[in-house]
């Protein structure tokens, strides 16, 4: 009897172990497929919002760069325009000078030539460098290239040539005035038409 019990005890099938169900962390309380879909939508919306922010930032950067480029172009254009205007002004001929003293034409011409007016105007400026002033100028009869210059405070007049530089003749005039004052001479006129020579009478 004992042997029989032992055999039964040996032959008794083992009870199957109870299966353990691992708890899936993916699906906790409140997490469903619908919840996952909602999260995906939220993620997509967040990514879209991030993309919009990046796009806006890029657009703002591009607009800022364009504004800077436009400002630089405007500044360069104004600078170049000013340089061109200055060069054009330098190249452009200066307006003709107008004499302020009387010009007496003994040839009874209706109009004094532009050449004579320019010479007298320049001579006025050159003579003023030596603190002298022209009283009036006479164009002698039948002498197209001669100009007789009368100086304020001087009894003599000075014959000058339209063909010689007015500044050189103004310097010659000043030296002759000093010479005449030193020698206490009072001639009727001084001829300065020939370069390097002065004749008085």
Structure commentary:
This protein folds into two domains: 29-92; 102-200, 3-Layer(aba) Sandwich (Rossmann fold). By secondary structure, it is an alpha/beta fold. A hairpin with a 6-residue loop joins β2 (134-139) and β3 (146-151). It contains four helices and six strands. α3 (114-128) packs across α4 (166-183). 51% of the residues lie in helices and 13% in strands. It has a six-stranded mixed beta sheet with strand order 1-2-3-4-5-6, with helices on one face. The mean pLDDT is 83.
**How many beta strands in the DSSP annotation?**
6
Terminal-residue CA separation: 184 Å
Biggest β-sheet description: 6 strands, mixed
Report mean pLDDT, rounded to a whole number. Answer: 83
The helix/strand series, from N terminus to C terminus, equals: HHEHEEEHEE
Strand order of the largest sheet: 1-2-3-4-5-6
Question: What gross morphology would you assign?
Answer: rod-shaped
Briefly note the CATH topology name of the largest domain. Rossmann fold
Short précis:
This protein is α/β, with parallel strands linked by helices and 201 residues long.
Fold blueprint:
Blueprint: H1 2-11, H2 33-91, E1 102-105, H3 114-128, E2 134-139, E3 146-151, E4 157-161, H4 166-183, E5 189-191, E6 199-200
Parallel strand pairs: 1-2, 4-5
Antiparallel strand pairs: 2-3, 3-4, 5-6
Helix pairs in contact: 3-4
Task: Write a concise keyword list for the protein shown above.
Rossmann fold, alpha/beta, 201 residues, rod-shaped, six-stranded mixed sheet
């Amino acid at each position: 009897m004992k042997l029989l019990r032992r055999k039964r005890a040996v032959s008794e099938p083992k009870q199957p172990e109870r299966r353990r169900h691992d708890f899936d962390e993916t699906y906790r309380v409140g997490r469903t497929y619908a919840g996952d879909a909602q999260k995906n939508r939220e993620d997509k919306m967040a990514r879209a919002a991030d993309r919009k922010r990046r796009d806006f930032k890029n657009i703002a950067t591009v607009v800022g760069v364009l504004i800077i480029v436009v400002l630089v172009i405007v500044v360069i254009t104004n600078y170049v325009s000013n340089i061109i205007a200055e060069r054009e002004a330098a190249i452009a001929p200066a307006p003709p000078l107008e004499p302020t003293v009387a010009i007496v034409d003994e040839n009874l011409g209706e109009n004094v030539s532009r050449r004579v007016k320019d010479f007298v105007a320049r001579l006025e400026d050159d003579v003023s460098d030596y603190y002298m002033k022209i009283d009036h100028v006479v164009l002698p009869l039948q002498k197209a290239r001669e100009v007789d210059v009368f100086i304020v405070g001087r009894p003599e007049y000075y014959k000058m040539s339209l063909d010689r530089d007015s500044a050189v003749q103004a310097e010659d005039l000043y030296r002759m005035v000093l010479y005449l004052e030193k020698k206490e001479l009072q001639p009727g006129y001084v001829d300065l038409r020939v370069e390097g020579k002065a004749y008085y009478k």
